[in-house]
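hiii so my PI (J.) wants the whole complex modelled not just the main chain, which honestly fair. so below is everything: two entries, each one labled with what it is. i double checked the lines twice but i was tired so who knows lol
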Amino acid sequence: GENVEQHPSTLSVQEGDSAVIKCTYSDSASNYFPWYKQELGKRPQLIIDIRSNVGEKKDQRIAVTLNKTAKHFSLHITETQPEDSAVYFCAATPNSGYSTLTFGKGTMLLVSP
Amino acid sequence: KAGVTQTPRYLIKTRGQQVTLSCSPISGHRSVSWYQQTPGQGLQFLFEYFSETQRNKGNFPGRFSGRQFSNSRSEMNVSTLELGDSALYLCASSLRVGRGLNEQFFGPGTRLTVL
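here's the output for the full assembly
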């Protein structure tokens, strides 16, 4: 089955800096890669996703890149703000007809003012 | 549209008991997946239901079961509770049109504590 590794487990940045979270996956059949943000005590919320036919996708301060050859994808947050502080999860799913997501272990991002 | 809802939000049970959790998906969503979230193991897939049928199952013991009703609402049941079952149980719904690749939206979760 799919295995997703996520790094780093914690990341501390100063407000205004950029943050990068990296994930690798094992199943070459995976072709949908969402990122979720989970604030303390709240539900995971989808913030951006990318599909295998796209190499990069941007949404304001957030971008995701995908390298299918190397089986890794990354989340980039620019101009970080304190409200970006949360746990971020990457996930992968193969095009098998299921909606099953395999998640990375999460990255706790702390943005200091 | 109302989001995914889960009831109850909090549960305290003792070892050996059983528990039933409920999930109501976003209106029109036909797929419901369940995940267990713990500090040590992160988010782990339990099972997915679509059109009242279990379509996929994660690596959990048979004590974990579920079902889906004709209105797409889903329940999961855990029998003979163990201390290690303490976790946040999240359900997620998606449209699931065609073969996968549909965004999943999570409910607020049910926090289960087993004493």
